[in-house]
Structure formats: structure tokens, C-alpha cells
Design goal:
The protein is an alpha+beta fold. The chain is built from 13 helices and 35 strands.
């Protein structure tokens, strides 16, 4: 059975366990589930090829299981998350609060609520019970960090990043001249870690771990007249800046998330760009990725590694033009193998066709001197030169020296072949009917071969209405043998589209929630639509997501107060006060009961939210700081916050603990998956 399971993915293992009561142990027996999730081997010992066979070693679920030993729960949670993502079926949908701006990183929500002269930054951890949240008094924080700024009446405060309990913010004000400060603090410990006066804030970004922090700006003037990226590093433990800055002269892109991205993965800082020259693109131009990394503890230029040119092939421009409005790019770690991958979406008119198509491309990242990675991955020899590519013709094989253009962008004489596993086209006819302005979030989950869009399906002639829905496209292998395509490539004569059709079934397209029937409106479904499109807060949408959830802000205008809507695909997610309903996977059918009060209000009732004026937080260390437990007798988050936050020892602090704002929001639904579907 272990040999059989090793040939299946997480979802198939879960479905197999449901086929017979005698196979329930596949998702319930501790040692078997540990072998499935972590090792790919039934023995509790390391093996040379364990990373190759592991199903989910690099997931949050697996790391939680390492701490508490709950491998069966981790396996079931993974399977349900993948299934919910691929079939557009969130487990939880709810209002989290009101905000003027927000960011969402790794399950942590940071949102700012302004009620001048008071301003609050609230930090909510959605990975746990999410009953309490940290509240930062922004004027008090900036007065302590930059005392002279207290004399300035107008200033700008923006959250840039949050990870490992450390928050980085951009604080700008003007006295005799403008000043821009990067403020780095740990709210739980009520500690300002570092503050630095910035020379530039152009395209500023921050990434950090528990011990290291890096920020970059697109501000350095290059010799060619173009701006370049420059990155500075900070050692948090020793409270010192690294003397060497990293100057990225080969990185051309400047829009993070579109043509360039930066991430910290494991103990390295990674960066990637899908462009490598400022020159105009010509016919038969060959495009490459530029990808680099350096160790976090020593960002010296001699330690910067770049991806080999054979492994950085992207596309030939003779494949057709690109509609840049639809593009996005990310850098992530594969949940099963730990391999670093570039994910890019492109809408192209392939081979001169009259109809454009959106395609999601995956590119594995290899560094030549990373011996441990190559031993674990057992990369095929033919994959070095032939892993990528695909639409090239014989006319594209004209040999020209790599040095004839900057960064070796001459035509590559080696024919390139893409693997069908790395190319996921969206061939549905309805995609061509959706305008780019109707899609507020485009994303791709390689863990379950699914693309996910947040689409406004409101009629085009009704510009003042909003009807947000989820749309996903999921594909599955035709057979287990199809997974071996990389090691045994198909004939070169076959096009990449034919290889994909031979290897994968057609995309399964799912939308959620289902369309409301005008003649027989569903009251429960109307409530869900009203929650997704809060009255008096429609028109402007800004969305962000991680691997297990999504948050979007909906409001009349980008500068006005907005409602934060939360959708989670993690079955472990819970919010206090949820109304439980049932739905059919991928369709959003509701058959649960609705509370009597909701039935009386009807689908057209006014949406009731928390007051626009935030409640006054309780300052830590004051007599009011001992907040009463909630109706459920307190939670781990509540107790943890109170035990770890220090007493400032008199005076007004800038951090407080408050009941999460979502407690005052009415709209929170939890959806149960039918037993037959797992």
C-alpha cells in the first residue's frame, strides 16, 4: 500500500481512504501518515531521496505535525485545503473589520484605521483562534521613535511587511524638509528594533526572518542612465547593519510581483526578474530569467550566486506578443520537494494566432554549487538543457554568439523543450470574454495545479454594481505514468499543447458562489453575495492572498474606509460567531438553515457593520489592561498575548491588546463539506 500511495497525490490518497472502511488507516494511522507527508519512506530515518518522494514536507501542516505529532490530521487538512482551492470552495467567509489600508502576509493581517487625530495599526494572526489582536497607537509609536516628528501635523504611515512578529513601516513627514524613516519594531515585545533615515523610498520593499532583515529601493543611478536596485541588510540579533550593500545591476524589472520579485526562503535572499536588458526587443529575441541569491548572514558581493544560463531560458519572442496587463510573477518553494520555483502568468498570442491565451509557467531554479539540493532532487541530466522551451521552430536555431547582446540575450542555438508539467494553459472560452478590469486578483497554486481569480461578474452596463465571485481552473494527470514525462520527454515533433493533452485532463472550471436565480431567489445565497459585496462599500477592490486564504478590501474609493473580507480554504480556520452552512463543492449551493432574524431582514436588508469609530484600546500596564475573557472563556491567543506583552512600567505605552474587530461584524459564514466528498 505504501508503494501505491507513493504514486498518488495527496487528494487521491484521501479519496482512496474514503472508498473502503478498511482503508481509513491511510489517513488515520500515525506512522503511515508520517511516511506519506514527510519522508516518503516508512522508516523513521533520513534517506537520500526522501525529498523526491515526500508529499508535503515543506508545508505549514507538516511543520505543525513535527511539533505536536498530529500527522493524520496534517494529511487530512492538506487534502481538504487542496480540494477547496481547486474547486473554489472556501471553508470560511467573513468580515474582519474596517480599514483605510492593509497588507496580508503569511496568515497575518496588518490594517490601519484612521480616525484623526488618532490612528491605529491593528495586527491579527489568522493562523490560530484569532480572538485577540495587537493594537498600535501610531502617534505614540512615531513620537517615541522620532521625537521631533510629534510637531508635524501631517504625516504618512504605511505598513511594508510583517513576519516572525516583526513589523516594518514607512513613516514620512515634513518639517523644514521631507524625511522618510523605516521603522522596525516588535509589537508583542513593545520594542523598537531599529529606525533608519532613508535616502530614497522608490519602490521600497522589506523582507525579514527572525534574525535578519533586508530592504531594497529602486534608487541607484546606473552608468547606462537607468535606475538600479540596491539592497541593505540588518542583523537583528546583533543590532548592526551589514557594511556591504548588494547592488543589482542586472535586475531590470521595477514592478514587484509583475516583472521582478524578492523573497527570503530558508537561509537565502532570492531575487528574480523576467527581463535582462533595457534594449528594445527584436524579432527572434530570446528571453531569459535573471535569478540570484545570497546567504542572509553574509551579503557580500562575492557570495552572490546566479542561475546558470541553460536553466534560465524563458521564451522566444517569435512565439508571439504578450499582453502585459495580465502578467504576474512570484518566487516560491515547492510544498513537496522544497525546490525553488518561478511562477509566471502570461497572456500571449501564440505563434501569430488571432486569439490570445493565458498560460501559467513554472520554472525550477537550480544553482550549480548547491550540491545538497542536486543530491536530494536527483535532477535528470537531459533536463539541464531540455527542461524548458517549446514553441521554437527550425528557423529559430540560427547560431549566434551569446556575447553579441547584453546578458547573452542572443538566440540560443540549443532547441528548448518545455515540460507539460510546467505549462498550464487556461483554454476556456469564457476567459476571453472577461476584461482585465473585471479581475481583481490573479494567482496560481502549483501545489494543486490550480489558477484562481477574483472576478467581478456584474453586468457591464451596470457600472455602479459589484458581484464578486471566485473562479478556479484545476487540472489532473490522466494517469500515474503521466508524471514521468520529465525523465522521458515526448518526441520533439509534438507541440507542447499535444504533450499537455496527452498528460493532463482538460481543466475543470469552478465558480463560487453559484448564480442567483431571479425567479426563485435563495435567501442564504443572497446573504453570501451581500457579504462578498457589502452595501455602501462597493466599487474599489484590492486583494491579497497566501497559500491558504485571501483577503480583499472593498470600498467606494481607494482613499475611503473599506470593509475587509476574508476567505479561507483551510479547514482548520475558525472565527467566533460564525453561522454554519453547507455547500456543494465548486458550486456554492447552500442548504443550511438561516437565523430567524436574517430571514426577517430579507436579501435586500441593510448591511450592519461595526461603527466607523474604533473603540478606545486599553493601554498595557494601565488599570484597564486586564481585559475580560470572551464568551468562550478566553483563548490561547488571548492568554499568550497577555503573558508575553511586557508592562511598560508606567506612562502611556503604544501597544495594547483588544478583542479582534471581527467580533463586532455580523457577516461570518462557515461552510461544511458534505461527508461524501470528504
Amino acid at each position: 500500500m505504501l508503494s501505491v500511495v507513493m504514486s498518488l497525490d495527496i487528494e487521491d490518497i484521501f479519496c482512496l481512504s474514503l472508498s473502503c472502511r478498511h482503508l481509513r488507516y491511510l489517513v488515520e494511522e500515525e506512522r503511515f501518515c508520517k511516511a506519506t507527508v514527510m519522508w516518503g519512506d516508512y522508516r523513521d530515518r533520513p534517506s537520500a531521496n526522501k525529498t523526491t518522494k515526500a508529499k508535503a514536507s515543506f508545508t505549514v501542516e507538516a511543520q505543525d505535525a513535527l511539533r505536536d505529532g498530529g500527522y493524520p490530521r496534517a494529511l487530512r487538512r492538506l487534502a481538504k485545503r487542496y480540494c477547496a482551492l481547486s474547486q473554489a470552495s472556501p471553508y470560511v467567509v467573513g468580515e474582519l473589520g474596517l480599514a483605510d489600508s492593509f497588507i496580508f502576509v503569511g496568515g497575518i493581517l496588518c490594517y490601519i484605521l484612521e480616525a484623526r487625530p488618532k490612528r491605529w495599526l491593528r495586527i491579527l494572526d489568522l493562523r490560530g483562534p484569532a480572538d485577540m489582536e495587537l493594537v498600535i497607537n501610531i502617534p505614540s509609536l512615531v513620537s517615541e521613535a522620532v521625537p521631533r516628528a510629534s510637531k508635524s501635523r501631517k504625516y504618512r504611515f504605511k505598513v511594508l511587511y510583517h513576519a516572525n512578529g516583526i513589523t516594518s513601516c514607512l513613516f514620512s513627514f515634513s518639517m523644514s524638509e521631507p524625511e522618510n524613516w523605516l521603522l522596525i519594531f516588535n509589537a508583542r515585545e513593545q520594542q523598537i528594533i531599529e529606525k533608519v533615515l532613508l535616502d530614497s523610498t522608490a519602490k521600497i520593499f522589506v523582507r525579514n526572518t527572525q534574525h535578519y532583515l533586508y530592504y531594497g529601493t529602486h534608487s541607484e543611478d546606473g552608468a547606462d542612465g537607468h535606475r538600479k536596485w540596491v539592497i541593505s541588510g540588518f542583523d537583528i540579533r546583533n543590532r548592526r547593519w551589514f557594511p556591504n550593500k548588494v547592488h543589482l545591476s542586472n535586475i531590470v524589472g521595477y514592478d514587484i510581483g509583475y516583472n521582478v520579485c524578492f523573497e527570503i526562503i530558508n537561509n537565502y535572499f532570492y531575487g528574480v526578474s523576467n527581463r535582462t536588458a533595457f534594449e528594445l526587443e527584436e524579432f527572434n529575441w530570446t528571453s531569459y530569467y535573471f535569478c540570484f541569491r545570497f546567504p542572509l548572514d553574509d551579503p557580500h558581493p562575492r557570495n552572490v550566486q546566479e542561475i546558470d544560463r541553460h536553466d534560465s531560458w524563458r521564451r522566444k519572442h517569435s512565439e508571439g506578443p504578450i499582453d502585459d496587463r495580465w502578467g504576474f510573477m512570484s518566487l516560491e518553494q515547492d510544498e513537496a520537494s522544497g525546490i525553488i520555483k518561478i511562477i509566471e502568468s502570461r497572456r500571449e498570442w501564440l505563434n501569430g494566432g488571432s486569439v490570445s491565451r493565458r498560460t501559467y509557467y513554472t520554472k525550477k531554479v537550480y544553482f550549480n554549487d548547491d550540491l545538497s539540493q542536486q543530491q536530494a532532487i536527483s535532477r535528470p541530466a537531459d533536463q539541464v538543457a531540455l527542461q524548458t522551451g517549446g514553441y521554437a521552430s527550425e528557423d529559430d536555431d540560427e547560431e549566434s554568439p551569446a556575447s553579441s547582446r547584453p546578458d547573452g540575450e542572443a538566440d540560443d542555438p540549443t532547441p528548448q523543450l518545455r515540460s507539460p508539467h510546467d505549462v498550464h494553459p487556461d483554454e476556456s472560452s469564457e476567459t476571453s470574454l472577461i476584461a482585465r478590469g473585471q479581475i481583481h486578483l490573479c494567482s496560481y497554486s502549483s501545489c494543486c495545479q490550480t489558477f484562481l481569480d477574483l472576478v467581478n461578474d456584474a453586468p457591464k452596463d451596470e457600472s455602479n454594481t459589484q458581484c464578486l465571485r471566485l473562479r478556479t481552473g484545476h487540472r489532473r494527470l490522466k494517469s500515474v505514468e503521466g508524471s514521468a514525462v520529465d525523465s522521458s520527454p515526448s518526441d520533439d515533433e509534438l507541440t507542447i499543447d499535444n504533450k499537455i493533452r496527452q498528460t493532463y485532463r482538460p481543466n475543470e472550471i469552478h465558480t463560487w458562489p453559484k448564480i442567483q436565480c431571479p425567479s426563485e431567489p435563495d435567501l442564504g445565497l443572497g446573504e453570501v453575495y451581500q457579504l462578498l459585496n457589502p452595501p455602501n462599500h462597493v466599487g474599489y477592490v484590492n486583494a491579497m492572498r497566501d497559500e491558504r486564504s485571501m483577503i480583499y478590501a472593498s470600498g467606494e474609493d481607494s482613499k475611503k474606509l473599506k470593509t475587509l473580507i476574508y476567505l479561507s480554504f483551510d479547514p482548520a480556520t475558525k472565527l467566533s460567531g460564525m453561522s454554519h452552512k453547507r455547500m456543494e463543492l465548486g458550486l456554492g449551493q447552500l442548504d443550511g438553515s438561516v437565523s430567524p432574524k436574517k430571514q426577517e431582514e430579507g436579501p435586500g436588508a441593510q448591511h450592519i457593520s461595526v461603527s466607523d469609530k474604533p473603540k478606545e484600546p486599553v493601554i498595557i500596564g494601565s488599570p484597564q489592561s486586564q481585559l475580560p475573557p470572551n464568551s468562550q472563556g478566553g483563548s490561547f491567543t488571548d492568554n499568550q498575548l497577555r503573558q508575553t506583552l511586557p508592562n511598560p512600567g508606567g506612562g502611556a505605552g503604544w501597544v495594547s491588546v483588544q478583542k479582534a474587530m471581527h467580533h463586532d461584524m455580523r457577516g461570518k459564514f462557515g461552510f461544511a463539506i458534505p461527508t461524501s466528498a470528504g
